[in-house]
Specification:
Elements (H helix, E strand, L loop, with lengths): L1 H16 L3 H11 L7 E13 L3 E13 L5 E15 L2 E10 L8
Antiparallel strand pairs: 1-2, 2-3, 3-4
Organism: Macaca mulatta
Protein name: Calcium/calmodulin-dependent protein kinase type II subunit beta isoform 6
GO molecular function, one term: calmodulin binding
């Protein structure tokens, strides 16, 4: 199940990176500038704590690499925690915390 939680977290981040507003609209709008180029995200050192059959918590370092509006490569790093709960056979992200993310949008 730990690998399933890591994969689900990666898919959620990918939805954010691809502009899937339904998946995580508020986070996308607050973090990404409209003129930034495609993003590559890596989850480093994931630690998964399984809680019973239907809950898990993952903590990791998120490394984000992208090209800014002026064509310069950029990298940012943040520490994130997500709490997942399985409802009706599907994992749902019920809590998210981020420390160390950029204060201004990525540009």
């Amino acid at each position: 199940r730990k690998q399933e939680i890591i994969k689900t977290t990666e898919q959620l981040i990918e939805a954010v990176n691809n502009g899937d507003f339904e998946a995580y609209a508020f986070y996308f709008e607050n973090l990404l500038a409209k003129n930034s180029k495609p993003i590559h995200t890596t989850i480093l050192n994931p630690h998964v704590h399984v809680i019973g059959e239907d809950a898990a918590c993952i903590a990791y370092i998120r490394l984000t690499q992208y090209i800014d509006g002026q064509g310069r490569p950029r990298t940012s790093q943040s520490e994130e925690t997500r709490v997942w709960h399985r409802r009706d056979g599907k994992w749902q992200n019920v809590h998210f915390h981020c420390s160390g993310a950029p204060v201004a949008p990525l540009q």
